[in-house]
Amino acid sequence: MNYVLALFLPPLSILLAGRPFVAIITFLIWLPAVLLSGGLGHPIFILLAWILIYQSGEIRRSRS
């Protein structure tokens, strides 16, 4: 579910993955990038969110 959320709101998805500081920094860069470029930079933020979601899942699996 978090991967789908990353398609539309990458900063929120990163926050839910447990990275609040990265989510704030991403939001501060993502919002102007989407508004000024018309969404051209959006795929990079989606990729970042997917990597961080995957990484947080791997960390949880390794603790078990």
Description:
84% of the residues lie in helices and 0% in strands. The longest helix is centred in the C-terminal third of the chain and has 22 residues, at 42-63. It has 64 residues and is mainly α. The mean pLDDT is 92. It has helices spanning 2-8, 10-16, 20-37, 42-63. It is built from four helices and no strands.
Q: N-to-C terminal Cα separation, in Å?
A: 21 Å
SSE pattern = HHHH
Overall pLDDT metric: 92
Question: What is the count of helical runs?
Answer: 4
Percent of residues in helices comes to over 70%
**Helix-and-strand structural type:** mainly alpha
- Low-confidence segments, given as residue ranges, are none
Shape: elongated
Amount of beta strand: under 5%
Gyration radius over CA: 12 Å
Please give the largest β-sheet. Answer: none
Number of strands: 0
Descriptive terms for the model:
single chain; 64 residues; mainly alpha; elongated
Concise summary:
This protein has 64 residues and is mostly helical.
Architecture blueprint of SSEs:
Blueprint: H1 2-8, H2 10-16, H3 20-37, H4 42-63
